[in-house]
From TrEMBL:
Residue ranges occupied by any Sensor histidine kinase NatK-like C-terminal domain in the UniProt entry: 334-436
Molecular function GO terms recorded: identical protein binding
UniProt name for this protein: Sensor histidine kinase NatK C-terminal domain-containing protein
Organism encoding this protein: Sporosarcina luteola
Transmembrane segments: 12-32, 39-56, 62-78, 85-112, 171-188, 200-218
Matches recorded under PANTHER family: TWO-COMPONENT SENSOR HISTIDINE KINASE
Gene3D superfamilies referenced in this protein's UniProt entry, alphabetically: 1.10.287.130, Histidine kinase-like ATPase, C-terminal domain (3.30.565.10)
Length: 443
């Protein structure tokens, strides 16, 4: 009989752990269907460990130890941002403490106390069976519906800590702190339940449920509001760059009539050599703009055109070689602009400060083995000894700079399983970015 009860408890605990994990992972935007089998195995192992170890160690300490182990296992298994895994685990713990312990089990025990019925083995098995069936039913709904409370983008954007305007790090850490405090309060309440008076146990159950739901919903509202502000900011940036590009095209068309008049005048005067030079300059100017038109993102074309104008004003030449229109690039337009923009800006700063401005900067977008390859090449005076420091935060060869450009590029590139590295060759440095392309239909 004792062995049967032990096995029953292990099964009950395993299902409770699994349900909490499925709910927690789903609520932070992780796909539970893809990790269902590993989660079942993990929950069963934790259930066995807890079922055996709680006979030898205090449940309070064992609970905390299992949380640490569970976090390490989930982080390694899911390969997701640490904040996303931590929030998922905290939500799973809140579900187990609030819904299972303080709501389901506590209500059953309260009803038994009111009816003055002793909690015997039969009653315990009946309650366990009811709670377990509820968890199984809930798990099936979670796997099927995959409810999301905190969108996955929240954790991806939190990587952009170098840009406070669109960083979600403050909101993420706020959620973690509040959920941690909720877990601490709920855990202490569940431990002290047997020592609390009957009417206060009713109040504590309802109050805990209401406060927890209210806090989580409030946090979600704040995050969604922040997300709308971020989207508005990015849209404004996009529109600004787009208007700049269209303004340049309108200016080119406006000047076209004047060019025709000038050419006609040169032909009338039979100054054919001057006319030839004038036309060559026109073709060169038009080609520079036309080379950027095929880019999938107009905002990227606008940014490159702006860099071209800035460089020309400083006597620096930038040559663009566009062999990939970025159509299959997995990055957002904001991210790809940040990658290319940082590399070009660094190249311009180096050429302007130390190198020969007459030496052109080369910017190439190409494709190699289903990968987008971005190469920015420029003259440089640096030696090989300092290459390893380039991607360290805070390292900069320019005065009054924080050294955040290249680390930001590295974060974005690695987010999409890409790599970025420098090549130094006979006084020239080339930064190469390789990002696996995604060949899906883009909206």
């Amino acid at each position: 009989m004792a062995v049967f009860l032990q096995i029953t408890e292990i099964i009950v605990w395993s299902i409770q752990i699994l349900t909490g994990l499925l709910l927690g992972l789903s609520l932070v935007g992780l796909k539970v269907q893809q990790t269902l089998k590993p989660l079942i195995i993990t929950s069963l192992l934790l259930g066995i460990i807890f079922g055996i170890a709680h006979n030898f160690y205090p449940s309070e300490y064992l609970f905390l130890l299992l949380l640490v182990v569970l976090f390490a296992v989930l982080f390694r298994m899911l390969k997701a941002p640490i904040t996303q895994v931590l929030i998922a685990m905290l939500l799973a713990v809140i579900f187990n403490l609030l819904i299972i312990t303080l709501l389901e089990y506590n209500i059953f025990y309260l009803l038994l106390d009111i009816a003055d019925v002793t909690l015997d083995v039969g009653a315990k098995l009946s309650i366990d069976s009811f709670v377990t069936l509820n968890n199984i039913f809930l798990s099936m709904i979670i796997v099927t519906k995959s409810p999301v409370l905190f969108p996955k983008a929240l954790f991806e954007k939190s990587l952009r800590d170098d840009d406070p305007e669109i960083s979600f790090s403050g909101q993420v850490y706020s959620v973690i702190l509040i959920l941690f405090l909720l877990v601490a309060g709920l855990y202490y309440a569940s431990v002290e339940l047997p020592h609390i008076r009957l009417h206060y146990r009713w109040f504590l159950t309802i109050w805990s449920l209401a406060v927890t739901v209210a806090i989580i919903v409030f946090q979600r509202k704040i995050i969604l509001f922040k997300n709308e502000k971020v989207q508005l900011f990015l849209d404004q940036q996009y529109q600004k760059e787009l208007l700049s590009f269209f303004s340049m095209i309108r200016s080119q068309r406006h000047d076209f009539n004047f060019h025709l008049t000038a050419i006609n005048g040169l032909i009338q005067k039979k100054e054919y050599d001057a006319c030839k030079i004038y036309i060559e300059e026109m073709v060169k100017s038009a080609t520079e703009i036309n080379d950027l038109l095929p880019l999938h993102y107009p905002a990227t074309a606008a940014m490159l055109s702006t860099f071209k104008e800035r460089a020309t004003a400083k006597g620096i030449t930038i040559d663009f070689i566009i062999m990939n229109d970025l159509r299959h690039c997995p990055c957002s337009v904001y991210e790809i602009n940040k990658v290319i923009g940082n590399l070009i800006q660094n190249a311009m700063d180096e050429v302007e400060r130390h190198a020969d401005p007459k030496q052109p900067i080369s910017v190439e977008l190409n494709t190699e083995l289903a990968q987008l390859v971005i190469t920015v090449k420029n003259k440089i005076t640096m030696n090989n000894d300092r290459l390893d420091d380039l991607f360290q935060e805070g390292f900069s060869m320019k005065e009054h700079h924080e050294g955040l450009g290249l680390p930001a590029v590295k974060k974005i590139v690695e987010k999409y399983n890409g790599v970025v590295y420098p090549e130094l060759n006979v006084g020239f440095i080339s930064f190469r970015v390789l990002i696996p392309e995604v060949f899906t239909k883009r909206g």
